[in-house]
Amino acid sequence: MRLTVIGTGYLGATHAACMAELGHEVLGVDVDPDKAAALAAGQVPFHEPGLPELLAEHTASGRLRFTTSYAEAGAFGDVHFVCVGTPQRADSEGADLTYVDAAFAAIAAHAAPDALLVGKSTVPVGTAGRLAQTYDTEVAWNPEFLREGFAIEDTLRPDRLVFGVGSARAETILREVYAPVLATGTPLVTADFPTAELVKTAANAFLATKISFINAMAEVCEAAGGDVGTLAQALGHDDRIGARFLRAGVGFGGGCLPKDIRAFAHRADELGVSLGFLRDVDAINMRRRDRVVELTRELCGGAVLGARVAVLGAAFKPGSDDIRDSPALNVAARLRLDGAEVNVYDPEAMDNARKAFPLLGYAVSAEDALRGADIVLHLTEWPQFRALDPERAAALVNRPNIVDGRGVLDADRWTAAGWRFRALGRPAPRGEKA
């Protein structure tokens, strides 16, 4: 089939390359000519494993092209996927649909009468129905469930597909688009518009709730002297709960979970339904950043003024260079405001971090960040950081103090190497040197 993908950011560029991989002819559309030109040259402006190779393969073959022309896109495609962003509004918790509305208006003005406009952006429930009533061209909704760092896998081998459709024809077309994926046995859920929209927002709300739940338990463990790691292990053996997303730490960030749960709660308020617990989820998540700052002050004798702080991590998660709402950079910036000398290192996100936080210090390696530090903060769970040798690291720092903000380092190993070790929701290790 001939498909267009409107918007070539993280979601759109990945979707375009993966649709070409499935055998379709694909035209990516973006209003930014520099972005379209870079992608046409096989250059990916963000870090996603495997995507540069996939993009280069299909742009070279001619199966994947990019343009800034909606007229060209309308003449080219049978199915038009809208993959633009829905950031949080500046004046409220709600989602800003400016880009979604503009993209649908632009492609609908040029699309063939029998084309199908498919939204993939995360939107407030009711958006698809409104757009379907606005345009004569048929609309469907096909929410995305991508994890940064695993986006290609999640597109080509997803755990489910969701089609929000208003007709059997729209479902048939989407089944043809995803025929190779469905042939592997991928579950398909066909739904009405509101349900399809809610699947994505409800999934993100549930994941955020699970993360904040274990972080709330970490707060209780800190008050009661318990160990949240052991607690989570015990809970995870219950099949009704499961172990995934039960690791206490500095909390979630990124461009999806924080703004999506706020937008979901805001939309529910508009519908007369209270989802106030999502605001509690958000508050718990932000409190974990506060706790890392508090632990840093405690290990530095009550204040960080003049202390050299090594921050391991800038991206909001490993496998990505995305720094949007990054807990690591939020903590780093707050400590700098308190007078600390902060040095940050991240394997992939250094350029983005420098642009957003130019006043922080940046190291050329993890070892460089540690050199002369009074305290080390492990805030993004990169494998390189987990693999650090505590004895070698101790020889680099000024004072062997560490806060494990991700709950994955071996406390006994670091303590044995002479470190004062703290992790969220866990007591100080036995035998630690004062």
Description:
With 434 residues, the protein is of the alpha/beta class. It folds into two domains: 190 residues, 3-Layer(aba) Sandwich (Rossmann fold), CATH 3.40.50; 242 residues, NAD(P)-binding Rossmann-like Domain (Rossmann fold, 3-Layer(aba) Sandwich), CATH 3.40.50. The chain is 45% helix and 13% strand. The protein has a six-stranded parallel sheet, sandwiched between helices. It has a six-stranded parallel sheet with strand order 11-10-9-12-13-14. The protein has a two-stranded parallel sheet with strand order 7-8. Strand 13, helix 19 and strand 14 form a beta-alpha-beta unit. It is globular and about 75 Å long.
Comma- or semicolon-separated keywords:
single chain; 434 residues; alpha/beta; Rossmann fold; 2 domains; six-stranded parallel sheet; 19 helices; 14 strands
Domain count, please report it.
2
Which strands sit side by side, in order, in the main sheet? 3-2-1-4-5-6
Please name the fourth-level CATH homologous superfamily of the largest domain: NAD(P)-binding Rossmann-like Domain
Radius of gyration, rounded? 23 Å
Layout of strands and helices, then pairs:
Elements: E1 2-6, H1 10-21, E2 25-29, H2 33-40, H3 51-61, E3 64-67, H4 70-76, E4 79-82, H5 98-108, E5 116-119, H6 127-134, E6 138-141, H7 151-156, E7 161-164, H8 168-177, H9 179-182, E8 188-191, H10 193-224, H11 228-236, H12 257-270, H13 276-299, E9 308-312, H14 327-337, E10 341-345, H15 350-356, E11 361-362, H16 366-370, E12 375-378, H17 383-386, H18 390-396, E13 401-404, H19 411-416, E14 420-423
Parallel strand pairs: 1-2, 1-4, 2-3, 4-5, 5-6, 7-8, 9-10, 9-12, 10-11, 12-13, 13-14
